[in-house]
Predict the 3D structure of the following.
Amino acid sequence: MVRQAAPVVLALLTLAAAGCNAPEPGRPTWGAEVRAYPAGIVPGVEGRVALDDDETVFLRAGWNVTDRGDWGEHDDESGGGPGFGFGWRKHEGAPDGSGPFYGLAMDFWFLDVDWRDGPAAAPTATGNSDLLVWQPTGEVGWAWRIGRTWMLEGTFAVGAEVDVVTNGESVGQGPIVLVGLRVVHVPPPSAWRRGAVTD
């Protein structure tokens, strides 16, 4: 499943990272992020576009690396794989984009998870599971402007991981909490939201 998904995710990465530089209104922007949760880490890229003066939609793609230990269905679970997501955010801060925001996201992950039962030295069973994981989340965060054309965003998200397709043994799923940092390239302040004019 991971091999089949990789070309799709690569195409989404290209769209999110390279196709979001347009200087015209509509204001596409792009960024890179790292999100972490108790059993893993998710580096990725994001492209977004403004719907109006305080709402944006986004497309993101990344790689989910997980080491669940014995938190799942087996004594040890670890693996990873590519994925993509999309969502919406509402910005409640200053006209330049800084300040608080909140939103909703839906991510899909194509994970390849190795699992083991019993001690590592003498396991009673081992195996591999290919998964399609659905991950809906709600997010809150704060954005800080760095210079004229960059933003730093801190995020906190809660949601769930749901294994919608499993090839192999069942593995862990359930609630998830993520914290993240995102660096975003944005237009300069005078070109930003709420009807401001360009430089």
Q: What stands out?
A: Helices lie at 2-18. Residues 63 and 138 are 20 Å apart (CA to CA).
